[in-house]
Structure formats: structure tokens, C-alpha cells
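Minutes, project huddle
Topic: does the predicted pose make sense with flavin-adenine dinucleotide bound?
PN asked that the exact inputs be recorded in the minutes so nobody has to dig through chat later. Recorded below.
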Amino acid sequence: MDTLVVGGGVIGLAAAHALAERGVSVTLVEKGSLGNGSTARSAGGIRSQFSSRVNVELSRISKGVWNTFEEQFGVDIELRQNGYLFLARNEDVAEQFRENVDMQRELGAKSELLTPAEATEHCPGLDPGPFVAATYNPTDGIADPNLAVQGYAEAARELGVDIRTKTAVTDLHREDDRVVAADVQAVNAETSEHLEVDYVVNAAGAWAPTVGAMAGIDLPIVPRRRQIAVVDPTPPVPELVPLTIDLERGSYFRPERDGAALVGGYFDGNDDPDQDPDAYDEGMDVEWAAQAVENASEYTEYFGLDTRIKRGWAGLYAVTPDHHPIVEETVPGLVTVAGFSGHGFQHAPASGQIVADLVVDGDTDLLDISPLSGDRFEHGETVTERSVA
Ligand SMILES: Cc1cc2nc3c(=O)[nH]c(=O)nc-3n(C[C@H](O)[C@H](O)[C@H](O)COP(=O)(O)OP(=O)(O)OC[C@H]3O[C@@H](n4cnc5c(N)ncnc54)[C@H](O)[C@@H]3O)c2cc1C
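Predicted holo structure (C-alpha cells), as shared on screen:
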């Protein structure tokens, strides 16, 4: 069985690896270099603390792989289980936190509900004053997305996957209803190559709608620019502090190595509704970074006046209306695995395995993926993920 995977981010690579493990012959095309889309721009967070069951399940399965990645793939992804700490400022959100923790625990996650005072045991510089509740999970953490890309790519190549960088899919062909072929073109080639395939996997992240459109499919996924700043905080954020999120204010930070910290968040509400994924500013806005640092300084003692903004970048979230991905065989021969809405790095291992199941078995018994079907929006059957930063 011949399968073409479109996109060399963490999702495409995890899918290519899982397919090859199941004996499928795989070609992967990436129009730039591996990981150069959203993956390399991610904060690397991995967590079980979501508000929807399906996201908690995707995390449970994925964490099983992240926690043993080095044994399985021979690459140390620098996993640090510092935990994630979510903070609530009002009672409605606190009630939502209680429901989330109950559901997460029911699904086997070690999440706990804390008082703001208890939260300071994990984040000593936190001002508990503005908050009414917190949740914490000690098995959440962070890893390096570039190392994960490297691990998946090397393992996939060893299993025979033909990984072609600087090569784009330029068209998809359907016969009757089924996708049966693709045109791919290397950057410096004058003509495209026609590949006859049994399956195409659309793992093109924020570009997935463009790839879907090549097969006449309209995907409800939009690119949204999100930024991260690397700062030298004063005082430094201790390395064991969790990734800490002030949910209502859309502010988060986490320790980096050597006293540095990453600061992020979306709080200015100025999304460009016509964002072109091929023409977005990949640099960090200085005013945004100053505001992000100020926001984090309002609820912690870190990020005082001497805090220095070192550098930063922007990347794209591929966002669906309910902040869940689309993972399905959209039309015969075309599997969509995109729209991860800012949490796709962590869900790559489970998503790759689901893709392999869909291609090889036509279905998956890993988990119930009906909440990830593309037609859920037409049928009004959506559950929105609310723990989004
Ligand atoms: C600032 C920021 C912070 C984030 N933080 C986190 C986090 O803490 N935890 C987390 O889990 N997630 C996080 N994310 C989200 C995460 O980065 C994405 O969900 C994840 O990387 C998606 O992976 P992907 O492989 O689907 O997409 P991508 O990495 O974007 O890969 C898609 C690839 O497809 C390629 N492509 C597009 N069109 C074509 C074509 N026609 N032919 C060939 N190739 C094509 C692109 O070049 C690209 O490399 C963050 C994202 C951003 C921007």
C-alpha cells in the first residue's frame, strides 16, 4: 500500500513513522525543511489538563510515548516533568476547573485541585491574591519539539520512509470519489512528478486547507499568529516551576534553562481574519512582548523591572471552531490530521497511531475519534476545548 504524507512537522512525521511500522510504504513531502512550520515554533508543552475527554485521552496515549521516547527512538527529547499550573480568577472558571479535574482523574490523570495558597508550593513566586482556584498535574511538562522531529524522522527513515524536503504537493487527483494520485514538485525542479497512491495524509498544519482544497475539500481551519518571548527574568524563574497559566488573562510562562524563561499568551484580541499562512511576520512584536512580561509580572514576583527581553518569534496555530483537530478519512483515500489549535505538538504520538489505524484498518480502537470528525460542525455536535492558552 502506497501512502503520501503531506507535511514534515511533528504530526506528519509521527504519522509516517506509525504507518511504516505497520508495513505501509510511505513517501513524505515537506515544502520547506522538517519542523519549519509550527512545530519548531511551539513552546513544547505536554499536559493532561484539558477540558474535553478526547483531548485528555489523546494526552494519555501520547504521554506514554513521550515518557519512553528515548528508549523507543534513541533521542533524548529533554522531557522535563515540571507540571502545568492553571489559575482561575473567578468562580465560574473555578467550577469549570473542578469539573475538569474530576473528568481528568476519571480518565487516569493525576490532576489535582488546589487552593491558590497551595499553588505557591509549586510556583513559589506566585501571588495567590488574584486567584480563587488552581489545578496542577505533576506529570505534565515540556520537551524539545526539534528533538522530537529528529527522533521521528530518523526512525521513519530507518523503516524505509522516503522523506523529501523542499518538495511540495501541488495537486491531488480524484477518480470517482477517491483520491488516487498527487503531483509533487521539488523546489528547483522544472516539472512536477505524478505519484499514484492508495492514500494521502493531509498533515499540513496551518496549510491543511490549501492541501484539502486540492481535492475539493473545505476544511474549517484558520491560521492564527501566536508569539513567544525569551526573557531573562528578575528574579530568575526556578527550573522546577511548572508551566503556569493565568487562564482568563491569556498569559503563561515557563522556566527555560539557565534562569531564562519563555513568556507567551494571547491577550490583545487582534487576530487578522485574513491571515495568509505564507505571508505572516515570523518575528516577535516588541510591544506584545512588553505586555506579555507585564501581564506575567502582575501575578508573580518574577519579571520585575530589570527583566530583559532577549528574543522571540511568532508561529501559527491551526485553529478549528471548537479547538479540536480534525482526524478522519475525509473522503476515500484522503486522511486529514490537522487543526490542532495550539496543542498539536503534544498530541502527535497518538495522532500518528490513529492515522496508521485509519489507513491500515479503516478505523481505530485506540479511542473514540467521533468528536474529531470534520462534519461535527455541520451537525452542531461540538464540545469546545476551554483550557486554551
Ligand atoms: C507560539 C506557539 C506555541 C505553541 N505551543 C505549543 C505547546 O506548548 N504544546 C503543543 O502541544 N503545541 C503547541 N503549539 C502548537 C504546535 O506547534 C502545533 O499544533 C504542531 O506543531 C502542529 O504540527 P503539524 O505537524 O500539524 O504542523 P506543522 O509543524 O506546521 O507542519 C506542517 C508542515 O506542512 C508543510 N506543508 C504545508 N503545505 C505543504 C505542501 N503543499 N506540500 C508539502 N508540505 C507542506 C509546512 O511547511 C509545515 O512544515 C504551539 C504553536 C505556536 C505557534
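Observations noted during the meeting:
- Residues 6-12, 29-32, 36-39, 41-45, 168-169, 203-207, 211, 226, 228, 315-317, 338, 340, 342-346 surround flavin-adenine dinucleotide (CB under 6 Å).
- The chain has two domains: 2-47+146-221+322-379, 81-139+222-319.
No decisions taken; revisit at the next huddle.
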